[in-house]
Each structure stands twice: as C-alpha cells, then as structure tokens.
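Late entry, tryptophan complex.
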Amino acid sequence: MPDPDEFVVTPYEVRGHIDYARLRELFGTQEVTPELLAKIHHVTGGELHPLLSRGIYYSHRDLAALLDGFANGKPFFLYSGRGPSGPLHTSHLVPFDLCQWLQKRLGVPMYIQITDDEKFWARTLTREETVKWGMENLYDILALGFDPKRTHVFFDSKSIAALYPLAIRVARKVPYSTVKAVFGFEPSTNIGLVFYTALQTVPCFWPSWAEGRSVPCLIPCGIDQDPHFRVTRDIAEGLGYPKPALLHSQMIPGLLGEAAMSTSGDRPENALFLNDPPGAVERKIRNAFTGGRATVEEQRRLGATPEVCSVWALWRTRFAESEEKFQEVTAGCRSGTLLCGECKSQLLERVHSFYRHHAQAREKVKDWAESTIITAAPKAL
Ligand code: TRP
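Prediction complete; structure with ligand written out below:
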C-alpha cells in the first residue's frame, strides 16, 4: 500500500498530498513570516499582492537580505521561466503575476526564460511543438503587463549564443552525482536533461556578467523548481556571482481536485487553458471539484470547505481582485450562505472578463515580443 502521507516534489514530478511545512523542512528553505510580508509591504510602497497576503507564496531563500539591500540602494532583477509543453493555464501565471507586480512597483528588470530545449528532452514533443508553444507562452506571459523596456527573454534555442559562455562555466562546476541526487535521474535519463540545469542557472548570473558587477537576483517560482536553484546557489560564489534569492509558491490544485493532482496539461479538464473557448471554460468550471456538500439542505446547515475546493483556489489565486470579495466568498462558503452553483456563476463572469481582456493584451505584445529575445553574449568568451 502506498503511504498516504507520501508526496514527491521535483522539477520533473509532483505527486501526492503535499505537506507544505514538511516540504519546507525537507528543502531547508525559510518561512514567509508576517515580518517578511511587512518588509515587502514597506519596500513596495504600502501594498501586498494577493498572492502574498493569501499565503500562496509561503517559502523563500534570502529574500529579507535582498529587500534590505534594495532599500539601501542596491538594485536587483527578477527572473522566472516556463518550459513550453503546451498552452498555458491560469495557474502557470502565478510566478509571472507576482513578477509583473514587483516590476511595476519597483521598476526592476525582468528576465524570462523559455526552455524549449528542456521540454524537448523531458517530454515526447517535437521541436516544432516546443518552439511553437514557446512563442505562444511568451505572448501570454508578456500580455500580463510587463514593461517592454525592462523585460528580456532567453528563448533557449534562439538565445544559445548568449547563454553558452556562462553555461559551460556552470556545467564544469556541477558533478554528475549532484544532478543525479537532486533530480533523481535514472541511468536511462537522456544527457540533455543532465546538462539542462546549467542553462536554467545562467540567467541568475547573466546580468552580473553583462554589467561586470554583482547584481542580485530574485526568482519567484513554484517550489518544485527549488532543486535547480539549490545547485545554482551551491556553485554561485565559486564563480564569483551572488547566490540568487528565491520566493516559492505552493502548487495550485487542478480543477478535478487533489485526487487528480498536478496542474500539468496532461488532463485537459483539470485546468483552464488560456486558449480555451468560452464554452470550454464554462463546462470546466461547472464540472470542477468543490468543497460542497451532497445536498443543498446539508450545505445550508453545515457550510462547505473552501480549503479543498478547486473553485475557491481560483478565487484565491487570481479572480478575487479585492480582499473584500475574497473574504465574502470564503465566509459565504464556510457558513453555507453561498452555494456552489452561485459561486461558480460569479466566478465565471470574472473568468470570461479576464479572457477577453487577456486576448486583447496578447495581440498587442506580438509587435514587440520578438525584440525582447536576447541573442548575443555581452562579451566574447
Ligand atoms: N524549468 C521550468 C519549467 O519546467 C522553466 C524555467 C526556466 C523556470 N527557468 C526558470 C521556472 C526560472 C522558474 C524560474 O517550467
């Protein structure tokens, strides 16, 4: 019998019921405390993004020091990425939403990595597919409102000349035994993936390399990506670069509930893809797993459980734009005054409106998306 408490979180596999406090201990990361949130609130000029105030970003490495540095005049840059294996869904936006908000508040540069090579090595996609999805995903990400002047993209196969001089230095520092232990690679793992982590490290150091001085890096990402950056942090100082700081989010449950864990695109009904037509969005939300009771009468009497509900997860991560709305939905659910059908109707309205707005924004970024892709190294060698 599999242990019900057993869970696995690596960049290549997320499985089981995740105990987030335990995961933080296992990974050796720090807790996002009220004091740290207060610091972010202060540095960003008196506001907190809902992904922070609602506890979705719950773990970090060295964020307090990075913020103190910023407050004392030491600028940093943001870095996050996406491995293009298909269309994006709403949960994929979690790191980019936070980055966009931080960029707007703090005026900092953003580096986005699109890893068309990684997903070619890790999945059964063709090169045509990974490249096509890479560009499609990039449009969706940029459409969140990134500043064209401060946003730079590494699209691995198109940016390899820019990445490679640093990648070879990184690769020389990482023994095979490390990647085998960190990622759980098997003897049959292809050697592309063995090398790949070097490429995911490069953007952490690239601005320091380009500018010839130490520029700190902050990476908002899903906690599943932490293993890559443990490798990065181990070797950073040996190469003369600062260790990147990290801010980790929880993994967002899919629409079919935790039993169908993973937000991955393997099950189309499990997520709201950004290219879903309105009818599909409606069907998926109507069929989504909730924390509701078996009958209306029971729900009115006993209330429901937001914490297990995939619809509540959507309100929490993106669609409750104000704290009042979020509290109203949460309290109504718990007390039984808000029934699942009504909650879903209200959510649907918000989702449709986001899709309409996003489709327009996406068309506009197509004019400049290509120009953000870095193709040349700043220096020879
Ligand atoms: N490996 C990530 C994925 O599979 C993509 C990625 C590249 C990334 N660089 C990153 C994610 C930096 C977070 C932060 O989607």
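The pocket of tryptophan is lined by residues 11, 79-83, 113, 115, 118, 200, 219, 221, 225 (CB under 6 Å). Will revisit in the morning.
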